[in-house]
Amino acid sequence: MNHPHEIRPDLDQGIDRKVLATLRARFLHINQGRLERAMEGLSTRQQLVLTLLPLLFHVNHPLLPGYVSGATPAGVAGFEPDAERVAEAQRLARSFAYKARHGNPPRPIHGLFLMGSLGSLAQAEQSDMDLWVCHAPGLDDTQRDELRRKCQLLEAWAASQGAEAHFFLIDPQHFAQGLRDGQLSSDDCGTTQHYLLLDEFYRTAIWLAGRTPLWWLVPAYEEHNYQGYAETLLSKRFIRNQDALDLGHLAHIPPGEYVGAGLWQLFKGIDSPYKSLLKLLLTEVYASEHPNVRCLSLDYKQAVFANQLDLDELDPYVMVYRRIERYLQARGETARLELVRRSLYLKVNKKLSGLERNRNHGWQRQLLQRLADEWGWDERQLALLDSRSQWKVRQVAVERRELVAELNYSYRFLNQFAQQQNASTRADQRDLNVLGRRLYAAFERRAGKIEAINPGIAPDIAEDTVTLVHSPNRKEPGSHHWGLYNGNLGTHEWEHFSPIKRCRELLELLTWAHRNGVIDSSTRLALHPGDSDLTEFELFNLVGSLQQGIPLPLEGVGEVRLLQPSVADEILLLVNVGVDPLRHHRDLNILMTTERTDSLSYAGVRENLVLTLDQVTLNSWNEVLVQRYDGEHALLRCLRDFLNSLGQRSHRPRVRVRCFCHNRAQAISQRVEEIFDTVQLLLDQGRNHRYVLQVAQYTHVLELLPGQVSLATLAGHEAVLGCLGEERSTYSPLYLDANALQDHDLPLVLAQEQPGCIQVFYRLFDGWADLYVLDEYNALWQQRLPLHDENHLLLPLQRFLRSVLMRHDARLPLDCLQQASLDIHYGQLLPSGPGKARSVEPRSAPSDASDQPYYEVQAILQAGAGDEVHVTLYCDQLEFSELDHGEQLYEVVARQILGQRRSAGHYRCYITDLDLSELLEDEQGSTSLYLRYKRELEQALNEGLAKLHATLEP
Question: 894 near 909, Cβ under 8 Å?
Answer without folding.
Answer: yes
